Amino acid sequence: MRERQQIGMSRIWQCSPPVDWRALGKRYFNLSLYYRHTFGGETWKISVDGGFHCPNADGTISRFGCTFCNIASFSPSRRYDQPASVAEQIRRAIDHFRKRRALDRFIAYFQPGTNTYAPLPVLKAMFSEAITVPGVVGLAIGTRPDCLPPEVLDFLAELNEKIWLSVEIGLQSAHDSTLRRINRGHTFADFCQAVWACATRNLRVCAHIMFGLPGETAEVMLGTIYALRDLPIHAVKIHNLYVARDTALAKIYAAGMYRPLERDEYAELVVAALERLSPAVVIERLTAETSDAYLIAPDWCRDKSGTLRRIQQLLEERDTYQGKLWDRMAEQTPEATRESEMG
Fold it and tell me: Is pTM beyond 0.85 here?
């Protein structure tokens, strides 16, 4: 509690965006704009595969993994041979991007697997190698809330003194009943603890959430948005749940026990979520994407740009924007909000 008091419970981290994105005609604080403001120009993320595994699939927590997860469906490196070294992956990606446009700023994004699930010396070697590549201006590290022990966080805090760094923590839902249903292997309390542990070390946090998880209504999904508001979250990724081949969810879908969201349903939820998020929170992603070879449903996932256009269209038609309902929502207590969202 003392750590939280030192940081402050006034939501100050979520009240003052560093750039007036509304004055620029934006409906939400997108990642591209944030990168331009932070790094002084166009900046791109490069997916890096450190070969990390997951405690929810190797027997440490579970051998079954999350019901929706097929890591190859969103990580091309896992579909082929063992990836090259960290530095070589980054150099190849930079060369690829530069063939299409003049770019000189890149974020090394450790994406597949749980990227803090390894001995500390391994993490030190990989992350230190990444920041030595010319053009790398930052690190993004994807992980789980239960894989951030103090010694790892202390090292990330040291790195954060040298280079821009973001810890991307998968939550998916703030409701423990849903987390059990999808075999997530952690609780919402675990997520909160991890976020506060990052905050005490001045580490940026990007929260990953999903809309369309089995058993969740629109009210329950928005309850996850409400649950984030008292946490020191700097950025959010919102993904639509899709059914990937070779997953437990694929079997549930084949049995007629799961229906994915329609695109309009998803777009409506995203707009409602944006209205309720702080205007200072960076929106890193608003839709999921996967390989056609792995996608079973819904088919509209193949058209990412069409989904983003629909979200933008709804924002414009309703003349609404990120944070429009933030002040009204902030007046409610967390307990009352969660109870009302659960009906």
Answer: yes
pLDDT at 341: 40
Write the CB contacts of 66 (distance below 8 Å, at least 6 apart in sequence).
Answer: 56, 172, 182, 183, 184, 185
pLDDT per residue as tens digits for the range 46-98: 999 999 999 999 999 999 899 999 866 555 554 455 568 999 999 999 999 98
pLDDT for 225 beyond 90: yes
Side chain identity, residue 197: A
Q: Give whole-number Cα distances, 249 to 45, 60, 263, in Å.
A: 29, 21, 19
Q: In sequence order, what are the residues at sequence separation of 6 or more whose Cβ sits closer than 8 angstroms to the Cβ of residue 294?
A: 70, 72, 73, 244, 245, 246
CA–CA separation, 13 and 77 (whole Å): 36
The CA-atom distances, in angstroms, between 157 and each of 149, 160, 174, 232 are 12, 5, 26, 16
User: How deeply is 121 buried, as exposed, middle or buried, from its count of CB atoms within 10 A (0-12, 13-18, 19+)?
Assistant: exposed
Q: How many CA atoms lie within 13 A of 196 on its CB side?
A: 18
Residue (of 160, 120, 169, 106) closest to 141 by Cα position: 169
Each domain of the chain, given as residue ranges in start order, spans 2-338
- pLDDT (tens digit per residue) in 160-211: 999 999 999 999 999 999 999 999 999 999 999 999 999 999 999 999 999 9
The 10s digit of each residue's pLDDT in 17-56 is 889 999 999 999 999 999 999 999 999 999 999 999 999 9
The CATH architecture that domain 2-338 belongs to is: Alpha-Beta Horseshoe (3.80)
